[in-house]
Amino acid sequence: MQHHNPIVIDRLGYSWPNGGTVFEGLSTTFSRGTTGLIGPNGSGKSTLLRLIAGELAPVRGAIHTDSQPAYLAQDIVLDTRRSVADLMGIATKLAALQRVLANTTENLELDLEAVGDDWDLEERSSALLNGYLEVPVAPEFLTRTVGTLSGGETMAVGLAGVELRGAGIMLLDEPTNNLDRTARHRLYDMVQRHPGTLVVSTHDKTLLRLLDSLAELRPVNVRALRAEKFDLVRFGDWDSRAEALGHEGDSAERRLSDARRKLAIEKRQGREAETKIARRAKQGRKAAESMPKILANSLRNQAEVSAAKNRGIMKSHEADAAAELAAAREAVPVDLRIAIDLPDTRVPAGRGIVEIPVSAISRGAVLEHAEPLAEDSVLAIRGPERIGLAGGNGVGKSTLLGQIEAAAKVPTGFLRQRLGAAESDGWAGLHDGLGMLENLRLAAPGVEPGTLREKLAAFHFRGSRVDEPVLQLSGGERFRVALAMILLADPAPQLLLLDEPTNNLDMATIEQLLSALESFGGAMVVASHDEEFLAALATDREWEMQRAVTSPDA
C-alpha cells in the first residue's frame, strides 16, 4: 500500500567526506508528481538523490520510501566497462532469460522466477532504445560496453532502462546532459507521462517548465563567504517560483537575454557585411586590371566611401546594442557577471582559420543548409564567425572538433566535454594539487603573476583564494578556473571550440559562461544540444552531422 508521500525525509543530517556538513536537520516530503531539484553547483543535489536512492547513508535522521527508487546518476558515462544491459538494470533478468531459451540453465526454477512475465524483454528493450537513439538497434547492442558509446548514447541508454523498469519512484540526475534533440523530447514525454513520483535535478529550463513543482537548495547562511550547509525551499511550478522571487528579477533576466541576443545578431550582421565588402573589393581589383586607370581609381574611391558609410552604420547599431546590454547587465547580480576584455582574440573578417577536406572527416557526414557537403569540397571557417555543430548522439561531433583543432591556423582553446561530475581532470586538464594562479600560469607562462591575479578577479577569485588548490573547489568554481585558463592563455586563442559546454552547469554558471564569451572576438564552433544557450550565442551558421552508418552496432 502506498503512502500519501512516497518519499519522506526526516531530520536528515549528512557530511561531506572531508568533514563539512551539507545537510543538518533537513525534513521534507515528495508526493506523487514531478519535482525539479535545483540549486548552485556544490549544493548537494546529487548527494540528496543518492541518499534517497539508498546509495549513501545519512549520518543522522532517516529517509523513508514506499518502494525501491530507480536512480539514474549523471556520472554513468565514467564506468566504461559496464554493459548496456547492466546500465539498463536488466542484466540479471536478461541472462536468466537467455539461459532458459537456450536450454542451458542449471537451475530452471530460479531462472524462471527471475524472468517472471518478461519473456519479451529483449524486444521491449530494443524498442525503447530505438526511440531514444532513433536508429535500429539489434539485440546484440545489449552486450556493448559504455566505453564504446558516446556520452549522449550512454545517457539515452540509462533513460531507456529507467523507463523500461517503470518504477513508482524515479530519481534523475542531470538527465539531459549530452542528449540530442530526439532523446530530449523523448525524455520530456516520459516525464509528463510518469504516473508516480519523479525527482529530477536539472538546469534544463525546458524540462523545468514541464514539472509540477520545484525544490531549491539554498545556503543556510547566505552571508558566509563559502556556503557549506544547505536547506530546501519549496515552490510551485516554474512560473510560481518566478512570481515568488519577484517579477523584477525575472524581467531583468529576460532583458539581459534579449539584449545579449540583439548584440550577437548585430555582430553577426557586421561580420557578414565585412565579408561582402572584402569580396567586392577583391572583385573590384580584378576588374580594374582591364580598365583605364582614371576610371579604376574613381570606382575604387566610390567603393571605399560606400564601405566606410556601411561600416559606420554597422558600428552605430552595434554600439547601441552594446549600450543596451551594459544597461541590462547592471540589473543582474554582480556574481553572475564575468566582465573581461580579450582584444588579442579578435580576428578580421574573411581570415582563413580552418580548412579541412570533407573527404578527410573521419566520422559521419556534414550538412549545411540541410544539404550534404560534397566529398571534394572543403569545410572552412573564416573570420570571427560562430558555428553551431548539431547532430544526433554518437555521430562524431567530438571527433570533428578534434580534427578542427588539429587543422587550425591560429591559437585554439578547446573546452572539452565534461562527461561526469567525478571526472578528475575537469574540463581543461586542471592540476588538482596546484592553486588557481599556478594553473593559470601554466597556460600563460609569459604573463606577470600580478597581471594574472587582476584577471582572475574578473572570474570572482580574489586575494588569497587564488592560491587555493583546485581540488578544494566546487564544480562551478573549477569550471571558472578552466574557462580562465582557456580565455586568458598566452598566446590568446583566436578559435574557441566548445563541446557540450553547459553539461553539469547550474543556471548561474551558464550565465557566467555567456557573460565571459561576450568579449571573445575570434571564431567559435559550439557543439551543443542546449537550444537556449545556442540562441543566446546567435550563431552565424550551423553544421549538422549525420551518422555514416545505419546502426550503433556498426
Question: Quick gist of this model?
Answer:
The chain has 554 residues and is of the alpha/beta class.
Structure write-up:
The chain is an alpha/beta fold and 554 residues long. The protein folds into three domains: 7-245, P-loop containing nucleotide triphosphate hydrolases (Rossmann fold, 3-Layer(aba) Sandwich), CATH 3.40.50; 249-332; 336-546, P-loop containing nucleotide triphosphate hydrolases (Rossmann fold, 3-Layer(aba) Sandwich). 41% of the residues lie in helices and 18% in strands. The protein is built from 17 helices and 18 strands. The chain has helices at 45-53, 84-87, 91-102, 108-115, 121-133, 151-165, 181-193, 205-208, 238-245, 247-288, 293-330, 397-407, 436-443, 449-458, 475-487, 507-517, 531-537; strands at 7-15, 21-30, 33-38, 60-65, 70-72, 169-173, 197-201, 213-219, 230-235, 352-357, 365-368, 371-372, 378-382, 386-391, 412-415, 495-499, 523-527, 541-546. The strands form four sheets. It has a seven-stranded mixed sheet, with helices on both faces. A six-stranded mixed sheet has the order 5-6-7-3-8-9, with helices on both faces. Strand 1 and strand 2 (21-30) form a beta hairpin. It is globular, with a radius of gyration of 26 Å. 40% of the residues are buried. The model is unreliable at 419-427 and 549-554 (pLDDT under 50).
